[in-house]
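Quarterly update, task 2.4: aspartic acid-bound model.
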Amino acid sequence: MPNPTPTPWYRQTHWRILAALVVGLVYGVVAALAGWSRFTADWITPFGTIFLRLLLLIAVPLVLGSLVTGIASLADLRKLSRIGGQTITVYIATTFVALVIGLVLVNVIQPGASIPESLRISLQETYETDVASRQETAGEVAERSPLQPLVDMVPDNVLGAATNNRGMLSVVFVAFLFGVALLRLPRDQARPLLDLFASLNATIIKIVEMVLVVAPAGVFALIAGTITAVSGDDPTDVAQLIGALGLYCLTVLCGLLLHAGITYPVLLRLFTPIGPVTFFRGVVQAQLVAFSTSSSAATLPVTMRAAQRNLGVSEEVASFVLPLGATINMDGTAVYMAVAAVFIAQTLGIPLDFAAQATIVFTALLASIGTAAVPSAGIVMLVIVLEAIGVPSRGIALILGVDRLLDMCRTATNVTGDAAVAAAISSGESRAMTGRPAAGIAGPGASA
Ligand code: ASP
């Protein structure tokens, strides 16, 4: 429904967040140049951490509440398997396209071919200790039985499952169990618990609104803190690093832009009446929060709000598709994994034949599904992809220095993909119900 009194642009939350982001960037650079990194870490970063925590704090109850009510609100199990099947198929298809884009770009641009030997050695020395801890984490994951991820998905304690943002898949599993059970119970028996979850949802949405009031301050602090933490008191180090790894970063960014700028608009064109401008205006706020927090889970509340308000995604679909997407659909991470794996192989002079590249597609597809929706999770899973193609995983040392920047960008792509798929599924459902695509797509200015 069109917004009767559009909010002036300068009061719209996404503009305020964007302004905070720019101010945070400028402050971060000035602080690094002026040697204020200690002051920033002591007095500014904590506010960013508090903002991030506020968002993560509501991620588990939101996934639980919205998935349970989302599933239970579907008319029957047939509808659940239809929407569930469509959602998972489209999620896998878009991730596959993302991987192909990443692979084609990295093979054409060959960013690893021009890295000098001296830089390779110095990068490996600098990040040796970081690499060891990430290899250890990934090694633990890789050494387990192939079915271990499936076992991990089933928690032995509901409350335990709810205590770990990295274990969101088990929260999704618990939500599925509850949702399906409630769907199969007689309505009068299901009602009290359904009301409880519905009320939990409404409460979370209110909390999101409250948290978003302080989003500009939170975003400023997060960005300022990240820049000073990455560059310490000498931003020229970072500038040099970005200069050396510039082509690699550009390849990842190109892949993300192509995927977001072509794949999603094509998806929307095929299944929805939403044009690219309306879509990107609708999701910009979620993209900015994703960029600042580097966490799809922390951004989930904002993505859900944007999809429903600005893209006309039905509550039924949003509450099912988006929590699932935040947990398993990581297209940006997939682009990054494809580029990073081949880049490292190129730098180390290891040729990758077609079979190795096909292995990257397969393992990165699974690894992106298994990537936790929190900062830096992607690089841990990258180790598994590298092991699968026989490239030494300590090669991640080469890219660790610029990982945070790329994490911000890939997370923004991840949430964009979730929103695009939600819009596509919602329109498809609405067409199936009424013969018309989803109504209620908000016009410009509705994204305040
Ligand atoms: N930070 C990303 C996310 O939350 C995951 C990654 O590290 O790629 O979506």
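Highlight for this quarter: The radius of gyration is 22 Å.
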